[in-house]
Every structure is written in structure tokens, then in C-alpha cells.
Amino acid sequence: MQITDLVTQYKEISQFLNSRWPLKNDEHRIFARTMKIMEELGELSDEILTSMNLQRNTKIAKFSQQNIEDEFADVLGSLILLGIELDIDVEQVMKRKLAFTRERFEMDSTDS
Ligand SMILES: [Mg+2]
């Protein structure tokens, strides 16, 4: 899956969310999306703590790698949803950031 496909699918999800749970304006949607990232980061953190046996035994007993993967995906998805609300071209900004990072670490540049 390409990043553009991912964003396209999340644009559809964003339209659904905005019609199912309409918010007052752009600011409220950006605030809600940002809070959702925090919620999902908390859930990912919970799963990581569980994987390290740093949670209650009842949680540790339910641990699975798929739970971490699902929460990782929730974080990424919620970030993309915020990017949509902020009118960010995710593919473009990631290309720019990767080029910057590669240059900073004096790595060879890539054509992609
Ligand atoms: Mg989640």
C-alpha cells in the first residue's frame, strides 16, 4: 500500500466521521483529532508496557503482538486524520522530512 492510498482511504473515513459526529468548525475538528492521537498513543503505550511485563497480570495475560500492531495502526491512522484536517500533504511532507533527515545524518540521498 502506498501512502497516497492510505491517505485516500482515511479521507473517506474523515468524511464519515465528520458527518457522523459533526463538530462546530475546523478548530474543533483539529482539537478532537489531536485528542484522539493522545488517546491512541496512550493505548499503544499500554500495550508496550504490557509487552514488557510492566502492567497488571490480567493485562499481561491478554498480551498479543497483534494488539501492539493494532494500536500502532490507530496512532498512524489518527495522525493521518489530523493531517487531513490541517490540509497537510502527508506524502510531500514526509519526502521533505526524509531528505532533511538523510542530509542531517550525512546519508546518501535517494530518488524516491
Ligand atoms: Mg486504539
How would you sum up this structure, described in words?
- This protein is mainly α and 112 residues long.
- It has one domain: MazG-like (Helix Hairpins).
- The chain has 5 helices and no strands.
- It has helices at 3-20, 26-51, 57-61, 65-85, 90-104.
- The longest helix has 26 residues, at 26-51.
- The model has no long low-confidence stretch (mean pLDDT 95).
- Magnesium ion binds at residues 40, 43, 71, 74.
Write the layout of secondary structure elements.
Layout: H1 3-20, H2 26-51, H3 57-61, H4 65-85, H5 90-104
Helix pairs in contact: 1-4, 2-4
The protein binds magnesium ion (MG).
* N-to-C series of helices and strands: HHHHH
Provide the structure class.
mainly alpha
Span of the ends, CA to CA: 15 Å
The percentage helix is: over 70%
Strand content: under 5%
Kindly summarize this structure in a few lines:
Helix content is 76%, strand content 0%. The chain has 112 residues and is an all-alpha fold. The model has no long low-confidence stretch (mean pLDDT 95).
Features:
single chain; 112 residues; mainly alpha; Helix Hairpins; flat; binds magnesium ion
